[in-house]
Specification:
This protein is of the alpha/beta class and 234 residues long. It has one domain (4-232): Rossmann fold. 36% of the residues lie in helices and 17% in strands. The chain is built from ten helices and nine strands. It has a six-stranded parallel beta sheet, with helices on both faces. A three-stranded antiparallel beta sheet has the order 5-6-7. α1 (19-27) links the parallel β1 (4-8) and β2 (32-35). α5 packs across α6 (145-154). The longest helix has 13 residues, at 220-232. The two termini are 17 Å apart.
Length: 234
C-alpha cells in the first residue's frame, strides 16, 4: 500500500504553502492530505491532526512546517501507522519545550520585532500576525514580491499561548525523523534546527542554501525528495 503523506502548515501560513510539494508528490503517485492546522494550542492542534491520521488506512508520513513540527511530534505519539516524521524548517521539541523557548535557544531569530500589535480576543487570548510590510523580508525572502504580499494579506494568525505551550511526549524519540531547512531562515535560527536534528538522531538532514523559512515553497523539489526518502525508509 502506498504511503499517504499528511502535511501540516505552521503559523502565519496555510495549507496552500504546500502546493508545490503536493504537485511533486502526486506526480510520483503519493496520496496527500494537507491538513488545516487550527493554530490554537499544541495539544488541541495535535488532536485535530491525529484525528485525520486515524482515518487513513495504511502507513503515513507526517510532515510539519515551523510550529507544525511541534504539532506532528505530539500528534504521532500512539499512532501505529505513522512510519516517519519530516520537519520542514520546523520545531522538534522535547516534552514540555515550547516553540518560543526553542527559537530562543540560539541567537538569530528576528521574528519578534516584525510582529504586529496582537489582536485581543474576547477571552483575553492574543492572536499574532506578522506586519504585512515586513512579511516578505522576514518570512519569505526568496519568493517573488507579489507572492509574498499575497501571503502577508492572507496569513493565518497563531495564538501567543500556542507558541509558549510545552509540547507533549515527543514521537521523534522512536519514529524515524527527517529534517530539511533553509540556510537563510530568519524565524528559526539554523543552529536551533541543527541542534534539534542531532538530538533526534535524524536519518537525513538537508540544508538548502539561501532558502528562507518557507523552503517548501521556494524549493518544493528538494523538500518533496526528503519526504519521499522518509516514505521509502531511506
Amino acid at each position: 500500500m502506498k504511503v499517504t503523506v499528511v502535511l501540516v502548515h505552521g503559523a502565519f501560513a496555510d495549507s496552500s504553502s504546500w502546493n508545490g510539494v503536493i504537485s511533486k508528490l502526486r506526480l510520483n503517485g503519493y496520496p496527500v492530505i494537507a491538513v488545516a492546522n487550527p493554530l490554537r494550542s499544541v495539544k488541541n492542534d495535535a488532536a485535530s491532526v491525529a484525528g485525520v491520521v486515524k482515518t487513513i488506512e495504511g502507513p503515513v508520513v507526517l510532515v510539519g512546517h515551523s510550529y507544525g513540527g511541534s504539532v506532528i511530534s505530539t500528534a504521532a505519539e500512539g499512532l501505529p501507522n505513522v512510519k516517519a516524521l519530516v520537519f520542514v524548517a520546523a520545531f522538534a521539541p522535547e516534552e514540555g519545550e515550547s516553540a518560543a523557548k526553542l527559537s530562543g535557544r540560539f541567537p538569530g531569530s528576528t521574528l519578534a520585532p516584525t510582529l504586529a500589535s496582537p489582536v485581543i480576543l474576547s477571552n483575553g487570548s492574543k492572536e499574532l500576525y506578522i506586519q504585512q510590510n515586513k512579511f516578505h523580508t522576514q518570512f519569505a525572502a526568496d519568493l517573488p514580491t507579489a507572492t509574498a504580499q499575497a501571503m502577508a494579506v492572507g496569513q493565518r494568525p497563531i495564538l501567543e499561548e500556542a507558541l509558549e505551550e510545552g509540547a507533549g511526549t515527543p514521537a521523534w524519540k522512536h519514529i524515524p525523523s527527517y529534517f530539511v531547512y533553509g540556510s537563510a531562515d530568519k524565524n528559526i535560527p539554523v543552529a536551533v534546527v541543527q541542534f534539534m536534528a542531532q538530538r533526534a538522531n535524524a536519518k537525513e538532514t538537508l540544508k538548502v542554501k539561501g532558502a528562507s523559512h518557507v523552503v517548501m515553497m521556494s524549493h518544493p523539489a528538494e523538500v518533496a525528495k526528503v519526504i519521499e526518502d522518509a516514505a521509502k525508509g531511506k
